[in-house]
Every structure is written in structure tokens, then in C-alpha cells.
Amino acid sequence: DLLVAGIDTTSSTVEWIMAEVLRNPDKLVKSRKELSQTVGKYVTVVKETLRLHPPGPLLVPHKCDEMVSISSFNVPKNAQILVNVWAMGRDPTIWENPTIFMPERFLKCEVDFKGHDFELIPYGAGKRICPGLPLAHRTMHLIVASLVHNFEWKLADGLMPEHISMKDQFGLTLKKVQPLRNLWTSYDFKLSSITTIIISSPQVGKQVLHENGQVFSSRTIPHSLHALDHHKYSVVFMPPSPKWRNLRRVCATKIFSPQVLDSTQILRQQIAILDLLVGGIDTTSNTVEWMMAELLRNPGKIDKRKELSQAIGKDVTIEESHILKLPFLRAVVKETLRLHPPGPFLVPHKCDEMVTIYGFKVPKNAQVLVNVWAMGRDPRENPEVFKPERFLEREIDFKGHDFEFIPCGTGNRIAISSQNNAFNGGIPCS
């Protein structure tokens, strides 16, 4: 989650650190030299990055419980207090050359970010200091030290340090307006040395995922998942085995079966919906956002909400049991999944043995990406037009049987929670 999700404060800070050292190659050299001499020595680049790019630029808002006077200013009861640590870190009365990345400044002073030195409080201070600070402290240093020590870092040909944008994107967390990963596309970085085959045809997809499903049922495992042996216990990434089949059976029958989903409806409303609407990283929430965007661009479709009134009545809270009574709503969900699948290439498959598909020999250990985004836009009747009605005229579903429409995958590796996604996609849209 730290390396992939991109929303964690630690991962944001690590990205800022690497951006700063890439823009300042001399600092990178010093860090590498320090690591080669003494692994574990305090890395001042972390402090300097936290000064310039605090993970929470305004911290988490505080609330004033009673009227109080601060520096002759009366703060009223219930006022919201934002602590602008971003501005404190760039105050020219406190810091020499405040906008320059200069880790050496922390070699000359004993300022720390643990809440005692108020010129540097990226994690807050007092009773509401971030409780995860000790973990963040260790994690950031470990990640940055590992990246700097184990890899050679240099800018691509034609890319100068000043080309790296350092513009801030303010929010609850502070991110880069232009993430470092954008450089991969702009400057043609090679992302992988694995032989990769991309499937963009339903016919070929059926041969790969159904007729040769056993051969392609393994996963290409990202190196990050080897930490703590996560790949050995993940139902998504485990290789086919009796253990994997048992875990999958338990998930399918004890967690995501229609009967269990019905019985746990209230519990999931209390726990999961908050995560759905606030988290912003779940595939379902992404699909809901695309769905509402398409409906707003097509007012004629949203006007058909009269289906809701006719089927369940006015001023009634939408329940999961209502979804089967709403064919147009289900068609809207399907059409959104066709145009905007939550995983455009699904989770990568791995070929366990050499196999021939449509006259093409797929080598052993090749990575296979199924381009369901392209399949959903295969030229036929107005593929770029948002037209839910097409699913009212055809008996096609996304449960893995119709290979022109497999946004949740198919075969042994179909998303176990696709039934749950079908419920969750329809309810918020309703």
C-alpha cells in the first residue's frame, strides 16, 4: 500500500526526497558516501525535505473548545485552527536561504521534528502530535537509504535537474503537481525486463483466460510484495495450489457469496461505505466517479431516474435488494465498466509453460496483460458514446462469461469480490 497507493504521507515524503536529490546531484553523492561509510547514520536529507515539503502542510485541523487569547488575539470558541507548517519551514526569519535544498543546515544545529522545536513540526506537537511519527521516522530513512544505496540514480538523456518540477499540490497531504513517475512516459524509461504480451481482443482473451486458463493462472509478482512474504498469503498473487484454492473457496462462499452479502448488508453500510466515499483509492469509488461524470455529460440519461421512483417509490433509501428492480441503473453500471474498467489491464497473468495462442508462441514466464480497456472500445456501434441502452438490448454481463466485457477478469483469477462491486457500484449511483 505504501509503494502503490500514493496517498500515504510517508510515500509522498519519499517522492519529494528523491525529487530533491535528483535536482541536487551533489547531495545524492554525499548521501551515498555516508551510507557506504556508516549504514544507519542519520540522513539529514529527510529533515530538509520535511522542512520544505511537510506531508501535511496545514496539519490536521484543531478545534478551539473555549475562547482564549493568543498573542493578544481572541480565538472564539469552536474556531478551526490550521497550523501552516509549510510556511514555517520557509520563514526567512528562521531559516537561511529558506527555498534552497540544503541538508547541511541540520548538521550545524540540533533541531528535530519530534514536536519540541516549533520551527520544524511537520508531524505536529503536543497532545495531538502524529502517533505514527516513530514508524514514519524509521520507514522514511529506511526506504530512502535503500533506494540511494542499492540503485544508481541519474537523469535520463536530455533531462536537466531544473526540468524536474517542484510545484506543490496542496490538500490534506502535500503532493507533487507532476509526480516523478511522469518522467517514465516523457523520457522513455524502460519499466520492465519481463517479456510482456498484451491481449486486446476478446477472441484471444478467451483462448488465454478460458481455454488455456491453467497455463496462465499464475501471477507476475511485483518485488514490493516479497516484503514480509506477503505474496505467499495473498489470494490475488499466490500461485495455483491447494492452499490458494481453499482460500479462494472461503472468500467466495464465506465473504462474497450473495447470501453472505445479503446478511451483512447493515454491517457493511456502517463500515465499508465510509471507506468507499472517503478513501478515494478503491476501484468501486473510481467507477462511481466515472459513472457520475458520464451521467452529468449526458443529462438525458440522468433524467431516466424516474425508474427509481416507479420501482421503489419516492423518499426511500436505496437498499441492495432494490438493484434487481432497476434494469436501467444496472445498464448504466455496465456501460461505465465498459468505457472505464477499474483495472484497464487487469492484474498481470504469468505463463507457466510455453503455449501457442493464435499461432503466436508465448514463452514460459511471460507476463500477460489483458487490455480490457481496448476490448470495451473495440470499433462497433458507436463505441465511444455513453449508451447504457445497449445493455438493455443484449444479455451480456461482466461475470466472466462474455469475453467482450470482462472488467473484473474471468476464469480462475476473476475478481472474487465482483459480486460485491456490482452492489456497491449501483447503490451510490442511485
Automatic annotation (TrEMBL):
Name assigned to this protein: Uncharacterized protein
Cofactor field: heme
Keywords for the protein's UniProt record, in alphabetical order: Heme, Iron, Metal-binding, Monooxygenase, Oxidoreductase
Stated family: Belongs to the cytochrome P450 family.
Gene3D superfamilies in the cross-refs: Cytochrome P450
Any single Pfam family the record assigns to this protein: p450
GO molecular function: heme binding; iron ion binding; monooxygenase activity; oxidoreductase activity; oxidoreductase activity, acting on paired donors, with incorporation or reduction of molecular oxygen
Protein residues bound to heme: C130
